[in-house]
Amino acid sequence: MKLNIAVLAGDGIGPEVTREATTILRAVAEFGGHDFVFTPALIGGVAITGTGGPLPQATLDIALASDAVVLGAVGDNKFNALSPDKRPEAGLLQIRQALGGFANLRPSVAYSALAGNSPLRPEVTAGADILFVRELLGGLYFGAPRWWNRDENEAINTMRYTKNEIVRVARIAFELATRRKKKVTSVDKANVLEVSQLWRATVTEIAAEYPEVTLEHQLVDSMAMHLMNTPRSFDVVLTENLFGDILSDESGVITGSLGMLPSATIGGTVNLYEPVHGSAPDIAGTGKANPLGAILTAAMVLRHSAGLEADAAAIEAAVAQVLATGARTADIARGGDANQQLVSTQEMGKLVHQALAQSL
Ligand code: NAD
Ligand code: IPM
Ligand code: MN
């Protein structure tokens, strides 16, 4: 099959991890006789430096003409003084909006080889497999009004959702739950926020269409604790944009590292694929970045944009296999573990490639 993939590597460790992810996609194409065409384009800080803005029109054109967009990460401390609409992150929000995907799927899977890496006890995390469905185009990120005029002692962001925006993401969460453990946990702040009351009422209404799925509601503050105490009790976690941003990063604790988490954004004209982590300026250029979140994101490309489920599963199995051998980037390395072997970003990518080559 033919697949046009726009590659927006971005800033910091973005290019480092994206290189490993595209190498894996190339391998799948080669073994399967597919024609994957990769087109690089600028986004984020490198786009500001190169073109004056975080999302050049050329990038948007390439992305909209592609079958899938793979994004590394954006963000560079040198732009910290800019207002939100001019920063690298603005390019990411703009492209999300332009591609139209509203359901950001963020799986958090506790790989058994990493059971000792979480500060949570192994018996707490063993077998945890959560799918966050984060609404991606609404809430505080996009609500108007929003402003801070720098000389004023007041600033505004607006949390706004329409019923339709909640309905469409809720349906995706329930559909996905029917193919999993048939449980949806909807997270809100309905004890305080009107938006959350609409959220809760709407999700409850949609749940009636899926009688085989159990729905529970949780308030976001206590949910942050339940996630750490009983991660195995969750299946699909459905929530609004900012709560999903925060809780999915928190779930990196269950898996052992934020660097392990992939994501796919579906529901729009072109799906967008990005690891959950950011540009990690603290380790950029050191070869310490964990490419597995980006590689697992590549698996999601195959699953959600190419219908290549077997290849997606093969990548995930290759990752599990490599972890089982003890290969560890610095973020998942552990003092006192004699079986582990510290590897760089590139070495980790190569090991997954080798394991995959044997299975394809
Ligand atoms: P971050 O996710 O970049 O890093 C948080 C911590 O996790 C750091 O200590 C980092 O070294 C570590 N980490 C992250 N990914 C890792 C990986 N693959 N391997 C090993 N360690 C990893 O978050 P931050 O530090 O809060 O933000 C840095 C910049 O990234 C900011 O500009 C932020 O806006 C941006 N950001 C971008 C995205 C994105 O492009 N999707 C997501 C989150 C943050
Ligand atoms: C993420 C990031 C982004 C978000 C930022 C960089 C705009 O944190 O993808 O999780 O908040 O959505
Ligand atoms: Mn985030």
From TrEMBL:
GO CC annotations, alphabetized: cytosol
Gene Ontology MF terms: 3-isopropylmalate dehydrogenase activity; magnesium ion binding; NAD binding
Annotated catalysed reactions: (2R,3S)-3-isopropylmalate + NAD(+) = 4-methyl-2-oxopentanoate + CO2 + NADH
Cofactor note: Binds 1 Mg(2+) or Mn(2+) ion per subunit.
Principal subcellular localization: cytoplasm
rRNA-binding is among the record's keywords: no
List of residues binding Mg(2+): D221, D245, D249
Protein's cellular compartments: Cytoplasm
Pfam (any one): Iso_dh
Binding site for NAD(+): G278, S279, A280, P281, D282, I283, A284, G285, T286, G287, K288, A289, N290
A biological process from GO: L-leucine biosynthetic process
Keywords: Amino-acid biosynthesis, Branched-chain amino acid biosynthesis, Cytoplasm, Leucine biosynthesis, Magnesium, Manganese, Metal-binding, NAD, Oxidoreductase
SMART domains, per database record: Iso_dh (SM01329)
Domain Isopropylmalate dehydrogenase-like positions: 4-352
Site (Important for catalysis): Y141, K189
Residues binding substrate: R96, R106, R134, D221
Cofactor(s) required for function per UniProt: Mg(2+); Mn(2+)
Record's keyword annotation contains Cell membrane: no
Pathway terms, separated by semicolons: Amino-acid biosynthesis; L-leucine biosynthesis; L-leucine from 3-methyl-2-oxobutanoate: step 3/4
EC top class, as a word: oxidoreductase
Quaternary structure and interacting proteins, as annotated: Homodimer.
Family: Belongs to the isocitrate and isopropylmalate dehydrogenases family. LeuB type 1 subfamily.
Function: Catalyzes the oxidation of 3-carboxy-2-hydroxy-4-methylpentanoate (3-isopropylmalate) to 3-carboxy-4-methyl-2-oxopentanoate. The product decarboxylates to 4-methyl-2 oxopentanoate.
Protein name: 3-isopropylmalate dehydrogenase
Species whose genome carries this gene: Granulicella sibirica
